[in-house]
Structure prediction request, 72 residues.
Amino acid sequence: MLIKSVELPDMDKQRELAKIFRAIETTKKTYQKLLQKIDELVKSKFIELLKGWFCSLISQINGGIRYGKISF
Prediction:
């Protein structure tokens, strides 16, 4: 079995790299949260669109929705 040694950067460089990696991780988490919020917004707008379309369709079929009831 061959064991190779790896030379590490000095401690200052390691600290600098760790700081950069933490910033990258924070940015990634923030971006994931943003994507989740955008997904929720798109879903809610889609539901609003479908509600409007459905109410319009029912109005055309039934002549309107009155008192929260749909009569056929």
